[in-house]
Design a protein that fits this description.
heterodimer, A: about 110 residues, Immunoglobulin-like, four-stranded antiparallel beta sheet, globular, B: about 110 residues, mainly beta, six-stranded mixed beta sheet
Chain lengths: ~110, ~110
C-alpha cells in the first residue's frame, strides 16, 4: 500500500514568489492536515481538511491557503514567500477529522526561500 | 541528508543500553498521546501511542509511560540499536479536536 505521498521533495523559491505543494493521502483516508516544521522545532499545525472543507486552521497568516479535491488529495499554497517560510512542509492523513488515531506523515517537501 | 534539529536536546546512549526520552505536554485536557521518530530527511514515523485512561503501554522494545498528574510522558527504548538514532517527538491531542501538538523533540544518538 502506498503511504502518504508529497511532491515535490525539494523546492527553491525567491522571496515574493508563490508556491504550491501537493499531497496524496493514504487510500481510504479522507482527512489531510498540513504542518510546518522549521529546523530545530517540532511540526506546527497549519490546516486540516476533511471532505473538501477546512476543519481547522493554525496560527498562520492569510498568505497560506489550502484546498482538498474530490479524490481527497490536497494542495497547500503560500503566496508572497518570505525567508522565514523556509521549512519542511509535512502532510498527514488520517481516517477522520477528529479521530484519536495516529496521523500518517509523508516525507515532506523541503522549501527553501532565497 | 539534512538534519532535522540542529539545536535539540541530545541523549547519547551506548548500543545495547536502555534509553529514556521525556516529554512534558501542555494541555491537561489532552487525552491521546503519540511518540514519533523522525530520521534525517524523512517525515515523522509512528512508534507508539497511549490514551489517557492508561498509564503504561508496551510495544516491541518500546514502552510509553503517562503521568497525568504532572503532565509527563516518557518513551523507553530497550536494548537501543544504531537504527534508533533519530529525533523523537511526543505529540498530544484532545478528543474532538483536529490537530496534534508536538513537543520540541529530543535527538537520540546511539554510540557503538
Amino acid at each position: 500500500d502506498a503511504g502518504v505521498t508529497q511532491s515535490p521533495t525539494h523546492l527553491i523559491k525567491t522571496r515574493g514568489q508563490h508556491v504550491t505543494l501537493r499531497c496524496s493521502p493514504i487510500s481510504g483516508h479522507k482527512s489531510v492536515s498540513w504542518y510546518q516544521q522549521v529546523l530545530g522545532q517540532g511540526p506546527q499545525f497549519i490546516f486540516q481538511y476533511y471532505e473538501k472543507e477546512e476543519r481547522g486552521r493554525g496560527n498562520f497568516p492569510d498568505r497560506f491557503s489550502a484546498r482538498q479535491f474530490p479524490n481527497y488529495s490536497s494542495e497547500l499554497n503560500v503566496n508572497a514567500l518570505l525567508l522565514g517560510d523556509s521549512a519542511l512542509y509535512l502532510c498527514a492523513s488520517s481516517p477522520g477529522p477528529t479521530a484519536n488515531t495516529e496521523a500518517f506523515f509523508g516525507q515532506g517537501t523541503r522549501l527553501t526561500v532565497v | 541528508g539534512e538534519s532535522v534539529g540542529l539545536h535539540l536536546p541530545t541523549l547519547s546512549v551506548q548500543e545495547g543500553d536502555n534509553s529514556i526520552i521525556n516529554c512534558a505536554y501542555s494541555n491537561s485536557a489532552s487525552d491521546y498521546f503519540i511518540w514519533y521518530k523522525q530520521e534525517s530527511g524523512k517525515g515523522p514515523q509512528f512508534i507508539i501511542d497511549i490514551r489517557s485512561n492508561m498509564d503504561k503501554r508496551q510495544g516491541q522494545r518500546v514502552t510509553v509511560l503517562l503521568n497525568k498528574t504532572v503532565k509527563h510522558l516518557s518513551l523507553q527504548i530497550a536494548a537501543t540499536q544504531p537504527g534508533d538514532s533519530a529525533v523523537y517527538f511526543c505529540a498530544e491531542k484532545k478528543s474532538g479536536t483536529y490537530k496534534y501538538i508536538f513537543g520540541t523533540g529530543t535527538r537520540l544518538k546511539v554510540l557503538a
